[in-house]
Fold:
Amino acid sequence: NMLRNITAALPGIAFQLALEAVSPLLGGLTKWAKGLETAINNARIGSCETAKAMVSSAAEAVGYDSQEACAKLAIQLGLEPDADAARRRCASDRPSVLSTARTSGDPQVRAQAPFVGNLTWKALESLDNFDDPARELVMSVVGTVIYYPEEANRDPDPIAPTITKIAHLLYGQADVGGGNVNIQLLSCNNFTECDAVTKTSSYVHVPFTKKVEDLMRSISDKIASRTPIPNNSPEVGFVNRTSEPVWRMLSVGNTIPGSGLAETMIVQYREVIAAEYAHSFLEQYVRVGLNALDKKWRLNANQRADVARLRRDAQKLMDLLAQERATLYGKKTSVMSLAMHLEQLERQLRSTMPQHVMDMLGHGASVAR
Structure:
């Protein structure tokens, strides 16, 4: 059997030697192809699927895929009547064709043009109810990459995040008084395209701990005064975005008027809830935004890799936020345990009150309603 196998392999070996004698390049190429065949068979990958992936990657690497996309756009825009004419036009005037496609009134045509612009900014633009300062804040947390049109003849410009620590997000970087802080922010040249970004250290920011404290105090005041809270208010949005029992905690804290329990709980738990709020903020907007970008625009391999990197960086920050929240929890009693303790305290206090005092409290509550 061994001799039979050797004999069967001799024609192939002779062919390989002949090729190398004629052209070392061709001989090396067949060796490379044989190695690729072995790797494919060992990995048990379907040859058809592998061939498609190889052709697609190679085409994209040499620009063939992008040239075909340009030709397709030239036909759709009515610039050329057929594929051959469109390819000739793209060979000599590709930047103009792509520029026309990007400004087309047809959203399907615009989406087929290769992506240019601010990667993170465009991702966040796809989200509703998200204002420009919030987009700048998220961009400062995860960074971005700016891609330029071909006529600019510029490489992509990766911009690193400026908010790289949890403390920056929760507490800011420098105190400016009044509860506000300065943070180094990535600022846009304009809020339409944001195609030029600069770093500024003078941005006045309300830290997440202060935002959470203000929202909790507002909720507490409304509970104490029996003031209705509209469904579309920031307070309701805040309560819905956090998994902590904020409403229950403040309700229990305000059960006994003038006790100061609600204020004590706000001060004690604002950092824990701020970490939770920041985690929810990033998870909702960053991840959803980057996923939306991946679906809405035509991204090449390098751009898809940049999106994946930004998503990984955002996930790392969210993991750090989760660790910070766990650390803060370790230093404090559970919010739920404290709320239950306050309910128990309330029952004990009411059980020791004279009946006429209980009647007065009940009458006052009915009048307040």
User: Anything to note?
Assistant: The chain has three domains: 2-112, 117-206, 210-368. The CA atoms of residues 166 and 320 lie 7 Å apart. The beta strands are 117-118, 144-147, 157-159, 174-177, 180-188, 197-205. Residues 117-206 form one domain.
